[in-house]
Amino acid sequence: MDHDPTEEQLTIMEIHKLHRIDPLKKQAERGLEVAQGLSPMDPPDAYAPSGIEPVPAEALHPFLRKFRDEHVPFLQELNAFEAAIHSIQKAGYTREADARLRHFFQYLDQEFVPHSRREDTALFPLLRERLIASGEHGSGSVPATATDVMEDEHAKAMQLAAVVVNFLGLVFRLPDERSGMIVLDAALEQGKNLIELLRLHVFREDNVVFPLAHQLISIAEFDEMHSRGAVTGRPS
Question: What long-range pairs does 72-75 form, CB within 8 A, spacing at least 24?
Fold first, then answer.
């Protein structure tokens, strides 16, 4: 006789669906056909040279360099998060590992979210205009640029983070230990997806987006952005 699926079974079904999600293919799904070199989305080629002239950090305007400098501690936090996941997979879920995970998601909320919002609101609108004007955009009916990819990744990162947090919160509430381990495994796998997404995101910003901004936005315009951030009280 057929039975309606229990809440626990539904949870496991949703986990299996999430295992099939590839966060690095979302641009293709949404039709973000960005110009060659601006969006190396396939993982094997993702870290290949972009064809864009690199810009040393010290040559960037302070407004832009602030964003790049904030990536350094963020990558360190990302490495610690990755180490915590590997620790759990090897030695099980310990109090120390739990503290590391909690710290990372707190850092994500307090540092990455404001950082992303400043990029989305203060830098990307003007940069998108300049990219379209210079021909650095996709060939679709709606021109898509590198900034569209970055904004999309900001949103996707927070969606994945929410999935991991919700799964971790569910692990010890399930009455069946086996089901709890399945949920934990799913949480860790989605955590790995989050790490890859964020690590690649930082690489793209440092090596593609910021050099393009350096080329296409004037010093006077950067000065104005910098001053606007100081006036509104937001770090710039």
Answer: 73/111, 74/107, 74/111, 74/112, 74/115, 74/198, 74/202, 75/199, 75/202
